[in-house]
Design brief:
This protein has five helices and five strands. The chain is an alpha/beta fold and 132 residues long. Strands 2-1-3-4-5 form a five-stranded parallel beta sheet, sandwiched between helices.
């Protein structure tokens, strides 16, 4: 997918959690996060213990949501309790997802990377994982 060449956010080493069930989409999101200077953390590569701790380490999260993947509800709740900004990505019914998760940004798949870049730019800065 094309990424915006200009006006992309500088994630400055921040850890971005990616909870995506499609390996190709997950890799595309991870590549984009890296190109913006962030550190992607792939949710499905983590052990159960690491998954429980992960929300405390991340600056933001990109979470896939559809009818058959409701197990992410616990992850979303944990992220919200820690005030971690979340974007839901979905190819499912936006109105249903939106009503289940009010106040969370939802991007329809395929993700518009310019809109995602703007979402990151609009978030308040969280501490970088490393020196910029």
């Amino acid at each position: 997918m094309p990424r915006p060449a200009d006006n992309h956010p500088d994630l400055c080493g921040r850890i971005i959690l990616i909870a995506e069930t499609s390996p190709l989409i997950a890799l595309d999101l991870a590549e984009t996060i890296r190109s913006w200077g962030g550190q992607p953390l792939m949710y499905y590569d983590l052990s159960a213990q690491q998954q429980a701790a992960a929300p405390g380490e991340v600056c933001a999260a990109l979470v896939d949501m559809n009818r058959s993947h409701r197990q992410h509800t616990g992850l979303i709740d944990a992220l919200r309790q820690r005030n971690v900004p979340v974007v839901l990505t979905t190819a499912w019914q936006l109105d249903i997802i939106g009503s289940q998760f009010p106040g969370i940004t939802i991007f329809e798949k395929p993700v518009n990377f310019a809109a995602l870049a703007q979402w990151f730019a609009d978030r308040s800065k969280c501490p970088p994982a490393q020196r910029c």
